[in-house]
Amino acid sequence: MASERETVLVATSASEELASKIAGHMRLPLVPMIKKVFADGETYHAFPGTISGKDLLIIGATHSDSAHLELLDLIQGGRYWNAATINVVIPFLGYSTMERTKPFSCEIPKGVTRTRQIFQTTPDFVAFVDLHSEAVLHSHRGDIHTFHIWTDDLVKKKIRSSGLRDFVLVSPDYGFSKRVARLARLLECPHTAADKDRFDTDKTIVGQISSVVKGKTAIICDDMIRTGGSIIQTAERCLEAGAREVMVLATHLVLAPGAREKLVASPIKKVIGSDSYPGRRSDDFLDVYSLAPLLAEVLSKRLAR
Length: 305
Prior knowledge:
Blueprint: E1 7-11, H1 16-26, E2 34-37, E3 43-46, E4 55-59, H2 65-80, E5 85-90, H3 110-119, E6 125-129, E7 145-149, H4 152-161, E8 167-171, H5 177-187, E9 191-193, E10 196-200, E11 203-206, E12 217-225, H6 229-240, E13 245-253, H7 259-265, E14 268-274, E15 286-289, H8 292-303
Parallel strand pairs: 1-4, 4-5, 5-6, 6-7, 8-9, 8-12, 12-13, 13-14, 14-15
Antiparallel strand pairs: 2-3, 10-11
Helix pairs in contact: 1-8, 4-5
C-alpha cells in the first residue's frame, strides 16, 4: 500500500543539482538544508521544518571525505528528529574500488568500511548506482534494504538517440566484460574485451584487442574514469586493431586532475557519462546524461511500498 505520509526531499551540498532534477520528475519540492560554516570550520546543519513522522529522501554522492561526512550528518539528523523512514540514494560511492585487500597487507578496505559507516547511521533504504563491486551491499547486519541501480536502460536510450551505427562495445578488462556483454545484448551489437594488467595503484598495461573492432566505432565501456590512463591505452589498441574511431562510455566521470586534458589530447573522440559525480555537465568533449528520471522512478517505487 502506498504511503500517505508527507515526503521531504533533501540533498547534500554537492548533489543539489541532481536532486533538483529528481524533484522535478517526482513533482516534489527540493527542500534546501540550512547550512552555515563557523569561523573554526565547524559546519551547522538544520532542516528548515519538521520532518517528524515524514518520509525523508536524501540524495548524496560521497565523492569526497567532506561529502561522506555530510551524508552521515543528514541521515543521523533525520533519525534524531524522528523521520518515519530514511531513504538514501548515493549516485556515486567514493572508495568503491577499495572493496578487497591483499593477504597480510594490513590495508583498510575503505569501500567496505565507509559503506558500513553509512549503514551504521540506520537508514531504512540505501540505493547505489553502477557499483564497482556489489560486495559493499552486504556490509550490514541484514536490517537495511539495499538496492543496486543499473543504468543499462538509460545507456541504451542514450546510445540509440546518438545516431551511432556500426559500433562495437569494448571492455577495458575481463572483469568488466559481463556488464559490457549485457549492454551489447540490449543494443544488439558485438562486444570484446582488452587484456589489462595492473602493476601499481594507478598504473596498468593494456594488451591486444580483437579484430572485431576493425572498421567500426569502438565504444570503450567502464564504470568510472579516474586518471584515464587505461582508457587511453585501450583506445590506442582499438585503433591499432583497425577501429574507425573510438568513444568512451562510463557512468561515473571522476576525472582526477589532469585526466580531462589527457583524454582530449588522445585519439578519443568523445566521452559519454552520467551526472552521478557532482559538477559534470555536457560540453564540446563530454556528453552527459542525467540519472534523474531513473533515480526518481526508484524512489517513487520505494515510497509506494
